[in-house]
Amino acid sequence: MEPLSGITVVEMTIAVQGPAAGLYLRDMGAQVIKVEPPLGDASRYGRNRDNETPAEAIQSQFVAVNRGKRSVCMDVNTPHGQRAIHALLADADVFLTNYRTPALAVMGLDYEALREQYPDLIHAQVNGFGPLGEDADKAMLDGAAVARGGLANMTGYPDRPPSLPGAIVGDTSGAMHLALAVVTALFARERGAGGQRVQTSALGTQLWLQQWEITHAAMTGANLSRDGSHHPNIRGTYGIYATSDGRAILLAHTMTQDSWDAFCAFAGIPELAIDPRLQTPGARLGEGLTDEDSDEFRAALERAFAQKTAMEWDDFLRTQPEMIWERVRNYPEVLEDPQSLVNDYLVSVDVPGYGSARTVGNLVTLSETPGSVKGDPPVLGEANEELLGDRGFSPEELEEIRIHADAVRTEAFAALLSAQDENRG
Predict the structure, then answer these.
(1) pLDDT for 33-82, tens place per residue?
(2) Which end of the chain, C or N, has fewer beta carbons within 10 A?
(3) Which one of 327, 346, 367 terminates a domain?
(4) Are 41 and 383 in contact (CB under 8 A)?
(5) pLDDT tens digit string along 287-302?
(6) What is the model's pTM?
(7) Which stretch of DSSP H or E encloses residue 412?
(8) Residue 381: domain span
């Protein structure tokens, strides 16, 4: 028995922010039915950088956030599509979407249109900038929320333009909040609250990710600024330092004097071991230091780290349990990290058109009712016959749905190929 066994989620989503929320619910045992238009979720086809996988392979963004789901493919704007979506919603617990409200309203799938017909349904929606205000229905990609929420302004170096984080943290954090909100609403329903609308946004979760920094700015009036390899709100030695082989080490904290002494000896900076400004753990995290002090100590550490390779530092730092540090890893190293593998944070799935691929797995451990990885990313429309057939659709009607979807896809792909030919000409 898994925590969400018996829960059915009808998911109408694209890209990452919506699908990743559905993925969490699926890992926890819910049945997740992904309703896709005739062309499918566009992330099935996005190849992005350095991609030599076969043209027919389901692509990485779709694989990452849609494993284990069932795919139903139909045009919701047709009579058959309307009947099909309502047949699915009739026995669903959650309708999960990241479509914008005006688009949902056109399809008759906004909360106001569904709440009386399905009083126990959790209508869960995530967008870019929140449910209210003049930008409630503004289009959003990850970077827009990161920029508006302030995180981009805090990322990078002070003498250079702001930078985007190296991952789509706007989308993925929005997904986490939506999944948490859905589980909360389901719990409230168990206590008699019935169905309700659940809404969150990428912008809101950017503020959540920066709770400390934003609250500090509000309370002190400080205009924090990006600080490159260091945290904008922490003076002292906390930061990332380059090594002699072009790699890097994050040094976060030295918790005891003995470990600080050992570090300074290994680093060849014995003068810092006795510097009166660095004699407490708090001081090494910046308490009582000026910006000038921080600049001085960081420069000394930069020179020291640059004298040895990353693995030489790794070997030494592993002997110091009272130091908080990590070697900065690239993605090939992340994929082979024994700590992630032993915890099943990385799993293998079979990708249609490609084969076995490693992806991020279920990250939540429950002692009595654990979730699990449910399987591979679905082929577009693979569940039409089973899931719609079980809900009263005849073979002839299912064939009509398939023919319509095939015709839309054929026309769209033909137009795409024609446009590509014109561009080459």
Answers:
(1) 999 999 999 999 999 999 999 999 999 999 999 999 999 999 999 999 99
(2) C
(3) 327
(4) no
(5) 999 999 999 999 999 9
(6) 0.95
(7) helix 395-424
(8) 8-209+336-424
